[in-house]
Amino acid sequence: MSRVIPLIAFGLTIVVGGLYWALWDGSRSFIDQFVVNDVYYQLMIWVWGAIPAILIIVGILCLIAAGVSVSGNRMGVE
Q1: Domain of 67?
Q2: In the chain, how many domains are there?
Q3: What percent of the chain has pLDDT over 90?
């Protein structure tokens, strides 16, 4: 069961993170009329567009860390 938990956590993180991102990305069209469009706003939009990629990269790194941890625990057990 402990081998499945990181995979479930990764899936839930991607789903919840994606839903949260889609909610705010959809509501941004209503808020844009109140925002000053300058260099900092363009930087924020660039970072906002990178959030899905960041979620996937961090999730994959967590899966790798969980795999290394599980394989490290099994080596001492015969």
Answers
A1: 5-75
A2: 1
A3: 1
